[in-house]
Amino acid sequence: MSAFAEKPTLEKKPVKFSNLLLGAGLNMFEVTTLGQPLEVVKTTMAANRGDSFASALARVWGRGGVFGFYQGLIPWAWIEASTKGAVLLFVASEAEYYARTFGAGDFVAGISGGVTGGVAQAYATMGFCTCMKTVEITKSKLAAQGVKPPGTFATFMDIYHKEGIKGINKGVNAVAIRQMTNWGSRFGLSRLAEQGIRKVTGKDDGGKLSAWEKILASGLGGGLSAWNQPIEVIRVEMQSKTEDPNRPKKMTVGNTAKYIYSQNGLKGLYRGVVPRIGLSVWQTICMVALGDIAKTYVEKVTGDQVTAKH
């Protein structure tokens, strides 16, 4: 018998169209349920940094009752969700696999997958969607000044004609930083929490976690990943339609951070962290826990179908 136990061989799973559909479907479910209301409250607090959580809820309600919490859902959040979910599940799974082939453990492989998937999301689909969602939510300030805000597509075309592709992708670098830190933290911390749960429950030898254990691990990973809220506040400010002569004319991540700090101090950079924690927990449960469970189920069903045919 060898003195060294052989490492289990990693199996490279084929890219399946069903996994892309699964990622899109999970993200559509996430955003249409709790995702968009929490996104709207979080963005409202980040844009109106003097608001408390209660006053932000009242502000959103005043924009249209229950429908105010779903502002920007159609079409921008749906376009974003249906594309970024597929990108994340595909790219993160591939990156996590290749990290493991280089000997990375669960935690490092999880971070690698999340970071790569997050960056791919930002530059492939999310730049213009997050920009337009933020514009939808923050342009209500025009209404408060007695100016009738233009419609969704009129706003999009106006920005495109004035500023081109750069205009509708404003803040995309901040989005990329947010997404790579978001999903790097979420996947990595979720995998770390899974390891902790395995130790507590005596499943150290790679034992399978139950659905509830997966959900608990993802909830912990999601909640802890809200540490990067300053990046989110910076992103919202860069994409906001607010008018302020003190704002930098050409906004970058650095000078926007300085502007927010000068206006609202350190607390300003953490506005909206409470709904953000809720959003992070819900997104991580949907995309990590439910993603793992659903992928296993799909693979089992399709595998059974192939076996039945033969």
Coarse shape? globular
So how many helices?
Answer: 11
- Category from helices, strands and their pairing: mainly alpha
* Record field, number of beta strands: 0
Main β-sheet: number of strands, strand sense, barrel status? none
The termini sit apart by 38 Å
The helix-strand sequence is HHHHHHHHHHH
Mean pLDDT over the residues:
79
What proportion of the residues is helical, as a percent range? over 70%
Q: Unreliable runs, pLDDT <50, ≥5 residues? A: 1-7
* Rounded radius of gyration (Å): 21 Å
Beta fraction: under 5%
Provide a quick synopsis of the model:
The protein has helices spanning 17-47, 53-62, 73-101, 106-138, 140-144, 152-168, 172-200, 211-224, 229-239, 253-268, 273-309. The protein is an all-alpha fold and 310 residues long.
Write the layout of secondary structure elements.
Layout: H1 17-47, H2 53-62, H3 73-101, H4 106-138, H5 140-144, H6 152-168, H7 172-200, H8 211-224, H9 229-239, H10 253-268, H11 273-309
Helix pairs in contact: 1-2, 1-3, 1-11, 3-4, 4-6, 4-7, 7-8, 7-9, 8-11, 9-10
Protein name: Probable mitochondrial tricarboxylate/dicarboxylate carrier proteins
Pfam family, one: Mito_carr
InterPro entries: MCP_dom_sf, MCP_transmembrane, Mito_Cit/Oxoglu_Carrier
